[in-house]
Amino acid sequence: MDSPSTPPAPPADFLENHPFDTIRVGDGACLQRQVTQRDIQLFAAVSGDVNPAHVDALYARTSHFHEIIAHGMLGGSLISTVLGTQFPGPGTIYLGQTLKFLKPVHIGDTLTVTVKVTALKSANRQVWLATRCTDQDGEVVIDGEAHVVAPAESLRILRTDLPEPLMADKNLRYDQLLNAAKALPRVKMGVVHPCSREALEGALDADRLGLIQAILIGPEARIRSLAGECGFDLTGFSIVDVPHSHAAAARAVELARAGEVEALMKGSLHSDELLSAVVHAQCGLRTERRVSHVFVLDVPRYPKPLLITDAAINVAPDFDAKVDIVQNAIDLAHALGIDRPKVAILSAVETVSPKLRSSMDAAALSKMADRGQITGGLVDGPLAFDNAVSLAAAKTKGIHSEVAGDADILVVPDLESGNMLAKQLEYLGGAQAAGLVMGAKVPIVLTSRADSAHSRIASCAIAMLLIAHRLRALAVAT
Question: 311, 284, 302: which is closest to 416 by C-alpha?
Fold first, then answer.
């Protein structure tokens, strides 16, 4: 097909058409579009066409094409785009279209979509156009013919701005996390007082996925009775029999001190019960660090994992505690593969004010990082929440910082603000949440009764990555 004579493109903010009286044989238009995975996912969501050849990477690898391919009609829809927005443009009525799909379209292919007038019929302003899509190598992937009614009058219409569709794959990062963890040896994890359905199920699921070897610590008769009621099979699982939740916490810490378990998971006891045993001065699992909790969130509208600390343990941390909270979070980020995490110390404002303690703490923490007293990350603050996660907001405020707008870790002023922030992102923002207690001799999965099995399993995977990271660091040091 020869290149059509293409009229000058109208301003990008407007759509202009070509009335029938101005159209000649050989006229036409074209557009270019790179096909992305997101395009394919959006098309599948709108059409309902979830043929695994288009949306399931594992299946696609076994198919004739060996990788995901675009829906044929995705390319066909681009022909409609040219006809309806460029040539003949607004006012065009589609009467028919033939399509021949000659070659698959893969993620990353750049399609050139061309339409060219082949015949005109004055009665009813009918137009026939050859339609063709070629890839970046010039290979024809779709060929066909369109039959339309061209507009009668000239139109110049303001282009409609569409809302940005939110496309969140809630399993993508979860699957990546699990795949990374499954490549590691199982971790012996003491599950403390698993005497609710949620606590027991989460532990058994993580064990069956090959992530952990669950050691159940609690009243054996009660655990077995619960398993029977829920239809859970405890064959092959070790149960450490203790009379009640306080004893379960104490015994779990003993096992961790003795190296018989490598991590702990909170079951259905109160967090204070477990943590009291963990931080006991003589019999606990304390280190030189303050114990703190780190949420790991997958927020649909944020381009990477987001860590929030401390939103579960330290109610109103003083400055010394905040130093450890920051370092603990950086260490966990390293275990997750973030080599130089960007740490935003949050306050209500981005300026330092003696009247606002959180801003003063943020400034001091940032300077400590500059002087090497906090290591392994890039620390900046004070930053308001919007400036920490939105580059546009940071630019509007005139903030010049490598952290602003691109934070990996958010350090909150106190537990109340952190807990509200994390739960808002989870319940209103659709975030997936997991988390870990840092600063003890072993990682601790601190679950909530409202946590899903998804969250409990993800937290186990994070604990595995942390243990593996510590072992690698120990091996390098020795």
Answer: 311
